[in-house]
Write a structure and sequence with these properties.
Layout lengths: L1 E10 L2 E11 L4 E5 L6 H8 L7 E6 L2 E2 L2 E4 L2 E4 L2 H9 L1 E4 L11 H11 L5 H14 L15 H13 L5 E5 L7 H16 L4 E4 L3 H7 L2 E6 L2 E6 L1 H6 L4 H10 L1
This protein binds adenosine-5'-diphosphate and magnesium ion.
């Protein structure tokens, strides 16, 4: 479903991604771990082209993100076409980023109506079903300020799903939450994983990673240092840097 090949990204002279390779199978959960500043957010943002990269490429479901192939040449896509590709990739941020002036239902329904131009009544029915799915069927008319952080993040997940994405990216979705609210968000993510959603999740929740991930990827200084199934990577890491990182977070 996702292929990242030789991805390089610099900010000025700082090379943040230094040739990242990553393969994600359809229906699988990949958890990305790594120290602060190792490039985890930049990697996610490059996958849906919130960041432009200098070298390498990302393809999602056979389409190269940001480019169109003609013969054996690549042409950069217009912003309009990039937006269309991005609509197929859900993104859940640490900070929720809900529209404060819209109800939970309208937050979920907004993009399918305005960006995908789907019929309002159908979108509203689907948005309500998504709110039920994340346990918030009774909060459709609530505004973000009336919801807890955990509830807001569950609305944000429903909003990401409303675009019917092929892939959902999560960037530390529980890091901004009070500890007692983390579980309700992880429960929703676990349900999505069970339902076969293709997910890439940056998180420090190692318990969640152990239970839900098919593959854990350890990123350090802009490179995939080690990857493997949770049992192997967490319990018998092969690389010294993986071991050093895990000894701090476990
Ligand atoms: P992580 O998510 O693993 O903590 P990031 O991908 O956010 O790491 O950042 C990796 C490095 O890139 C950090 O050193 C950060 O300061 C730098 N960086 C990220 N975004 C920008 C930006 N827009 N401009 C300049 N430097 C950036
Ligand atoms: Mg980050």
């Amino acid at each position: 479903m996702v292929e990242v090949r030789g991805l390089h990204k610099s900010f000025g002279t700082h090379e943040v991604l230094r040739g990242v390779d990553l393969t994600v199978e359809a229906g699988s959960v990949t958890v990305v771990i790594g120290p602060s500043g190792s490039g985890k957010s930049t990697l996610l943002r490059s996958i849906n082209r919130l960041e432009k990269t200098e070298r390498g490429h990302v393809s999602v479901d056979g389409e190269i993100i940001g480019y169109r192939r003609s013969g054996d040449r690549l042409h950069e896509l217009s912003e309009r076409h990039v937006l269309r590709q991005r609509a197929g990739i859900g993104f859940v941020f640490q900070s929720f980023n809900l529209f404060p002036h819209l109800t939970a239902l309208d937050n979920v329904a907004e993009a399918p109506i305005s960006a995908q131009r789907r019929p309002r009544a159908q979108v509203h029915t689907e948005a309500l079903a998504l709110l039920h799915r994340v346990g918030l069927g009774d909060k459709a008319d609530a505004y973000p300020r009336q919801l807890s952080g955990g509830q807001q993040q569950r609305v944000a997940i429903a909003r990401a799903l409303a675009l019917r994405p092929k892939l959902v990216l999560f960037d530390e979705p529980t890091s901004a939450l009070d500890p007692e609210l983390v579980g309700e968000v992880l429960d929703v993510m676990r349900d999505l994983a069970t339902a076969g959603t293709t997910m890439i999740v940056v998180t420090h929740e190692i318990g969640f990673a152990r239970e839900v991930a098919d593959t854990i990827v350890f990123l350090d200084e802009g490179l995939v240092v080690e990857q493997g199934p949770p049992g192997r990577l967490l319990d018998s890491p092969e690389n010294d840097r993986t071991r050093a990182f895990l000894s701090k977070v476990l």
